[in-house]
Amino acid sequence: MSEREASSFRDPSGFVFRQDGKIYRQINHVYREQYTQLMDSGLYKELIQHRLMVPHEEADIPCLNDAGALVIRPKEIPFISYPYEWCFGQYKQAALTTLRIHLRALNHGMILKDANAYNIQFLNGYAVLVDTLSFEPYQEGMPWIGYGQFCRHFLAPLLLMAKVDVRLSKLMLAHIDGIPLDLADSILRGKLGTFGYGHIRLHARTIARHSEDGKEQANPTGKMASVSKRNITAMAQSMLHFIEKLNPKQTVTEWGDYYSRTNYSEDGTKAKEEFVTAYLDQIDTCKAVWDFGANDGRYSKLAISKGAHVVAFDIDHTAVERNFMQVSKTHQPMLPLLLDLATPSPSIGFANLERGSIDQRQTPDAILMLAVIHHLAISNNLPLDQIARWLSSLGKHLIIEFVPKEDSQVQILLRTRTDIFPDYTEPCFEAAFEQYFTRLEKREIPGSKRSLYLFRSKSFQ
Amino acid sequence: MYFDPGFGSMIVQVLLGGLAFFGVLFATMRHKIAALFGKKPKEDAVPTEADPANDNFEQVDTDE
Q1: What is the dihedral of CA A69, A70, A71, A74, to 10 degrees?
Q2: Which residues of chain A fall short of a pLDDT of 70?
Q3: CA distances from A145 to A97, A335, B5 (A)
Q4: Does residue A457 contact residue A398 with C-beta atoms inside 8 Å?
């Protein structure tokens, strides 16, 4: 049974499909020559050595249609992520990977034909290009066709995040082909600097000034402007240097005691870790885990030690940034991502199919949701049974901590709002969740009034 | 209004590519002059990004 990926339809060079649970890419005859050049020029080997591109092997299975020349099997990316879910450090790494590939391609007589942020994915802390069909043979004088896209997909979001606010990466949700440069220019007013002035403002104004050029009969051959290889290389190098040094004003450097403030005694923390470990052991297959509200990734690491790949979601940019800094050093199987549980990433793009919502991308074996429920139920007024229903539709198992009203963390939340939550009690929590889950275990966390549950979703039985 | 932004991006590359080249030329000359006075040049423009750790990165099939 073969199924084409919904997002893989723009490029005539080939497409991605899934067969028997494995991911493949068909390379069409029209791209055969370019693929051979990528492999034979030494470029592919170099990109793999430097951890810049996803490795693949040629697969011994037939093409899905007559246009196909061969099929390759790329290494599977455990969880597909999108730019609006990346912290600044991830976004920066993705941009640097794109430029480094571009420069290395030029050295091998090829050029990166697009600079799409969605072509970059994270594999154990490495930002890698996943589109093997992104290369064209380079001809002297040809400009970098991906330059405009690089500015919209990488440079504009990075400048907005660094100079204005890290939350502006969310603009990528509204603009699937990158942030329009005139929009970036209007937000960055006064903060562009010389570099931004050239690549954003001048670029935006030149685009507007030459918007009608394509209609002119004076250019019937569609002849392109000529840029020397020397100049393309220098421009990419200057962008690389600029982005390497680019950081938001309040740069996160290392773990301090930022997240060490918890509501537990030392015994409580230790017990909670033991309980989570014991629950994870009870789950037969535990390869894919989501950690909602991952904080410093303490519990994510427990799942990693059991052999799982963990997506460590958090609403807090700093938490994601710190986790990413760690993963980019240790290369553990963890992907930190930004996510607001009250508004999880929607599906966007053509026919709302190109970039999936989180539940369309993976069904985790287990979800960890520790010390989060009170934020959803009390800060966001979300009814317990609706939270339970949603969680049961996402993953097979749920390890969840109930934080009762008497807990000081909940008291802090209630200090500034009227208590309109009479149903926020442990019995009501259990009743709500047992509609959608089978309870496998419950343990009380010593030194607190909190309880830890292991549930199995009824949707996946 | 719909227009193809490709033309503008090409034109701006001609200009900024030229400027970048002179920037790189200037930086290279400055380093050469600094080297005459015994200053060590900085790392290569495209640094090595690889981690030498055995991370199973190149292994495609992770099923087994």
Answers
A1: -110
A2: 213-224, 251-263
A3: 17, 31, 11
A4: yes
For residue B31, give the H/E element and its range. Answer: helix B6-36
CB A27 within 8 A of CB A68: yes
pLDDT tens, position by position, A66-82: 999 999 999 999 999 99
Q: What angle, 0 to 180 degrees and rounded to 10, lies between the N-to-C axes of helices A426-434 and A384-394?
A: 40
Pairwise CB contact (< 8 Å): A210 & B51: no
Instruction: Identify residue A152 by its one-letter amino acid code.
Output: R
A chain contacts of residue B23, beta-carbon cutoff 8 Å: 234, 238
Q: How confident is the model at residue B31 (pLDDT cuts 50, 70, 90)?
A: confident
DSSP classification of residue A371: S
Residue A66: CB partners within 8 Å, gap ≥ 6? none
Exposure of A5 in the CB half-sphere (CA atoms within 13 A): 21
- Say what the pTM is: 0.93
Residues in chain A: 461
Show which of residues 313-342 on chain A sit within 8 Å of chain B, judged by CB atoms: 331
* pLDDT for position B38: 78
